[in-house]
Specification:
By secondary structure, this protein is mainly beta. It is built from 2 helices and 13 strands. It catalyses: dTDP-4-dehydro-6-deoxy-alpha-D-glucose = dTDP-4-dehydro-beta-L-rhamnose.
Amino acid sequence: MLILNTTLTDVKLIQPKRFGDSRGWFTEIFNQSSFTEAGLPSSFVQDNQSFSTKGVLRGLHYQLGKPQGKLVRVLSGHIWDVAVDLRRNSPDFGKWAGFHLKPLTDEGEIQSLWIPEGFAHGFLVLSETAEVLYKTTNLYYPQGERSILWDDATLNIAWPLEALNGTAPSVSAKDAQGKLFLEAELPPV
C-alpha cells in the first residue's frame, strides 16, 4: 500500500496494491495493520455511501464536538473532491486541495483519499452519476454539523465548473445556507 503526500499536511492519497490475473483482480482497500503502521487511523465507526447525478455539489461539511476523519473512495463515476484545512494551528489553515477521484486512476490504480478530523469536505460530480463511499472516524452528530459555502470568495476554490457546460452546480437547501469562511464557527484549537 502506497501512502502519498498531498499539498495539505496530513491529507493523504492511499493507493493499495492490486493483484490480478485473467479472472480479474483483488485488493485490500483497508487493512487495520497497514493503516496503523502508516500512522493513519485504524478505527472507523460508520460507512456512508452516496449516489449523485452530474453537477451535484455536496459540502463543504464538517462537524464540531465530534469531528470526523474520512476515508473517501469513488465506486463509480468521477468527482472533484475538496478538503479545506480548518485547524487554526496548522500551517495550512484556510488552504484547500482538490483531487480527481474515480474508481481507477488514469494509470489504472485504485486510490482513496484520507481527510483527517479538522477539515471541511465537499465534492462535485463530473460524470453522469457517481457513487461515493466513505468511512468515518466518528458517528454523525447532527448538533455539530456545519457547512461553509462552496463558493466562498476567501477560500477561492477552483471548482472545475467548465465540466458542467454552463450549468450551475446543484446544491442542497442546507448547503446553500452555509456560512462564509470568515464567519463560520470553526473547530477549537
